[in-house]
Amino acid sequence: MKKIISLEEAAKLVKDDMTIMVGGFLGVGSPEKILKELIKNNVKNLTLIANDTSFPGQDYGDLVVHKMVKKVIVSHIGTNKETGNQMHSKELEVVLVPQGTLAEQIRAYGAGLGAVITPTGIGTVVEEGKEILEVDGKRYIVEKPLRADIALIRASKADKNGNLIYDKSARNFNPIMAMAADIVIVEADEIVEVGELDPNFVMTPHIFVDYIVGDDK
Amino acid sequence: MKKIISLEEAAKLVKDDMTIMVGGFLGVGSPEKILKELIKNNVKNLTLIANDTSFPGQDYGDLVVHKMVKKVIVSHIGTNKETGNQMHSKELEVVLVPQGTLAEQIRAYGAGLGAVITPTGIGTVVEEGKEILEVDGKRYIVEKPLRADIALIRASKADKNGNLIYDKSARNFNPIMAMAADIVIVEADEIVEVGELDPNFVMTPHIFVDYIVGDDK
Amino acid sequence: MDKNKVKEIIARRVAKEFKDGQLVNLGIGLPTLVANYISHDIDVTLQSENGFIGMGIAPKEGEEDPNLTNAGALPATIKNSGAFFDSATSFAIIRGGHLDYTVLGALQVDEKGNLANWMIPGKLVPGMGGAMDLVTGAKKVIIAMTHTSRGNVKILEECTLPLTAKSQVDMIVTEMGVMKITDKGIVLIEKNPEFTVEEVQKVTFAKLIISDDMKEMEI
Amino acid sequence: MDKNKVKEIIARRVAKEFKDGQLVNLGIGLPTLVANYISHDIDVTLQSENGFIGMGIAPKEGEEDPNLTNAGALPATIKNSGAFFDSATSFAIIRGGHLDYTVLGALQVDEKGNLANWMIPGKLVPGMGGAMDLVTGAKKVIIAMTHTSRGNVKILEECTLPLTAKSQVDMIVTEMGVMKITDKGIVLIEKNPEFTVEEVQKVTFAKLIISDDMKEMEI
Q1: What CATH number labels D3-216?
Q2: Shortest Cα distance from B214 to chain D (angstroms)?
């Protein structure tokens, strides 16, 4: 059985200077409750790996607003003007990565691969300073795997052992982040008994999950 | 709607000299009916990409027995002595690949990646003649993506549009092969109406499937 | 021309490119409108890169599902022939060449097929999102945009803004016409009858090659 | 010693290594037996590399499911806490370091931690299957085997057969004892009381370092 912990306990696992991955796509499918709790703790100098920086006033978008983040590795910042502001004032380092590359970099770490060999970004600024690998006469960028100390993810259902099911487009980066962090904390909309999820349809096997957060009790 | 075709029509799509991928793990989850039909056609000089060469007397194991294959790219041949015999008599070229590398090579083609960068095989004969990529001081083998002209796969359920669900350990290589071939033919244990499969639990989206074979009518 | 009419002309024309059974990704903004003009006689599957295929029409008010949104985080629906997947699979579809068309807007596009649509240094840095993968991976890339933007010419000999991808654009559709990117340059294959060739050329900083069988664009 | 007793001694000892909550992959043959000796006080998850975690005991006759087999194609079961996945995910688990232990047999193993267990040139070429990924990716590699095979010594200074992986073996468990691979060589940490150190060394072609607190192996 995995440890079911409170929101407070979950948020406390995130400490200054950590690298965290947060699931979600413009906030959809992100662990909102854990993030709300985390913001209360006012942790500092985080490196945030996510698809984007969401919107100000919600979920991981507010990590930036509250200046808890020193560096973001994301594919898009256009929906959170605070990210752009802090980037221009040099308070925040912004690393922009093509979305598909970002997804594969996270998957590559989880899968024990040494690099991602992608055509995306060839001929653009994205290739600058990076190693190029030629395969059968075609040029590819060598992108390194991405890992995190903690992944904060969101599932629609978790059994008490940590098997997960996601709902619709809220799945997005959650399953791959579950494989790429030392500690994985899932915020589940519903916690069910072991045996209630059909093994054929589990989306993240329980071995990837360390802690489950249900409600605030 | 995808074309639902007969076993005969399906088997006829496989022609001499083609590279084919066949789903299954020691025969479990392989498209047995299509293979039985294919063997009647006595196609020649196939290149077979599969996890193994199964057992003589069944499914893709019999493609080797009937000398329809000139080359196999597999992780294991120990269960089919005919493979070993033809290898020793030089009738058959056998390329042995670590199972995880094989899976990633197939996935890499489907995902448009230029290569697989794996630690598996370093310090063994597997690395011989291959490019080595060093990432942060660690050595990895550069393995090239694998594609096929046709993938023959097996699903437990297909809707009439080609969305697929696999059953238990019969899933294995089927979903990744569905993404790595020019033409994908699925043998479905059951064909259901569009709408009967929950989009959240579809394992292979219909866009990867070209033809569905149900029964022999 | 009326702004909405301009958008409609462009979106309607792009939609004509699609064939039965194809998979298409429509970018946010103007390209999204293309969905409204796809013929009902063909079955075109729309991908939403945040993780599904089979995107349907926008939901009615009150029927939005917070877990079902498009790549712009707006409420979406899925057809009963659709399927959800994670981001790695979504971009495997895109990068792996399984997408027949991607339709995107542009800041600049040039006669080599280069595209710039993700940043203006020092000014606008939203990030590339999925655009670089889409333009690199899709079989065909269609740029759907107004011919100029606030008087600025966008079709150039060579892009000056940071590129999204090199030599990947196949076609440009604007309210003035339809252009194909070829080895020889940009060929005008259809023209809005409200404009002369000279008028189109005037707001295009790449030399237009006029197709021998140039057609009138439906407006 | 009775063959079955030998196997039992080895399997029982290997099982003691596991801790609550760990994920383990057991190779076919002798390593499979280890499952029978895992303490009921701990929850150990077994992976089957053909595509699931949570492997249970073999099914009763008549209850076999053709779609549920282990990596040797034999009928298997899954616990209700298990999960199925495809081969790419299965090896992502293996290669990605998510596996706490892999237990495999060996043709040869040496004092550098090198392992040979997939081919004998010109004789036996079954292929590596998942072994190379397992040995490369698992956090700990345990070799479970009879100390010798038909009189042939298998624990060597240096493997002569083609390697499965270089410097990956952590522990060797045989019916004669338990050995750890260290930077200094092979350390005998437990010994079957039925044998003397000299007897063990005689059938081991690498110099055994005898641990200061060598224990008696439970037999």
Answers
A1: 3.40.1080.10
A2: 18
